[in-house]
Amino acid sequence: MNPFRRALTLAAFSLALPLATAAAQAQDRLPTIPPKDYSPEQKQAAEAFAQARGKPPFGPFEPLMYSPEVMTLARSMGDYLRFKPKIGTTISELVILMTARRWTQDYEWYVHAPIAEKAGIAPEIIAAIRDGRRPAKMSDDETIVYDFTAELQDTKRVSDATFARAEARFGKPGVVDLAAISGYYTFLAMELNAARYAIPADGKPLPRLPE
What we know:
Layout: H1 3-29, H2 40-53, H3 61-64, H4 68-83, H5 91-102, H6 106-119, H7 123-130, H8 140-155, H9 160-195
Helix pairs in contact: 2-4, 4-9, 5-6, 5-8, 5-9, 8-9
């Protein structure tokens, strides 16, 4: 092999090695537990999950199966916040996307970006959140929810004015659910990131933004 080709081969190998190592680490952290290896507690949790969701544990619930008690509690909260929140299941998707973006959670984004668009969130809004930009055009409800969630996630607080707008629109129960959705999907994002849970082969990672 001539020196030039050898240099190219070594360079390609050096670039591929970190990717291969990362993939191996992702598999080594909290690999999906085969159902045949479930403990009695895990089997019970998986059966309850299937009864509630109509399918076996998937996505973030796979690494959570290492703690079936946590998985069951998380699934129960998700049953409400994902499907029956008091702010509705369209505007809630905006909160989920903002949370996935804040945590650069590829799987959460992979799942919920198509759901958000199907629910009625404009592609331009989804693209802006993906790129770390405030959307240029939002409805009144989207603006209220965006401002509330951005303040809560960025400053760890919500100003009186922003809270008042959210309360006037959604009521106190809706404000509680609005914050809860942000917190719940933050929890899932943290678990997925800690586990290095991989996105499917057809998924595209979120752009990595400056910290």
